[in-house]
Amino acid sequence: MSISLVAGLGNPGREYEFSRHNLGWHVVDAYASKHGLSWKDAPQFESIVARRDLAPGRALWLLKPLTFMNGSGRAVSAFSRYHRIPAEDVAAVYDDLTIDLGLAKISVTGSDAGHNGVASLLEHLGDGFARLRLGIGPRRPPEMDLKDFVLARFTQEQLNLIQQNTDTYVQDLELLIGSGPTLAMNKLNRRDNP
């Protein structure tokens, strides 16, 4: 089991750029930038994609669906079918309300936990894909509507925290790509929380 496709979940459009729901895009962008990768339009997959050659005969694809969050699975499954990438070789990078801001976890199975992008992946791709879950919690104020909260922009203080943690998020992603989900999960999920 080796990761061949990393899908960063988010919403296209400038108005969503610094929203909580676009943290997955931010991290995949940071990974692409670190490795000097360029994004290309892939309209047949309703996405933009980048490619990195990890080793002879081993390509890693990065994908950002342009379908809006609720249609993420459509784009990811179309791309993975075309390139014959099974679900277990796919990693999704996305925001998770159940994890505190600044922290990240890796998992492989589980429900969508109310996340529409993950629900769409489960529907179109099936279960078994790896997940790099980036904390955006807790919801404050707690009575705020979930949709309003995830689509709202980070505060400046929160953005500063994300900037400080971006390198760590990219390292977490590299660990997942390099070691596979099981080893990465054991290492990352046991890491002492700050």
| Overall mean pLDDT | 94
CATH class: Alpha Beta
Largest sheet: 7 strands, mixed
Helix content: 25-40%
The CATH homologous superfamily is named Peptidyl-tRNA hydrolase
Please give the order of strands in the largest beta sheet: 2-3-4-1-5-7-6
CATH architecture: 3-Layer(aba) Sandwich
Number of helices: 6
How many whole angstroms does the radius of gyration measure? 15 Å
Kindly list the characteristics that best describe this protein:
7 strands; Rossmann fold; globular; 6 helices; 194 residues; alpha/beta; single chain; seven-stranded mixed sheet
Can you walk me through this structure?
The chain is α/β, with parallel strands linked by helices and 194 residues long. It has one domain: Rossmann fold, CATH 3.40.50.1470. It has 6 helices and 7 strands; from the N terminus they run βαβββαββαβααα. It has a 7-stranded mixed β-sheet with strand order 2-3-4-1-5-7-6. Helix 1 (23-34) packs across helix 5 (156-179). It starts with a strand and ends with a helix.
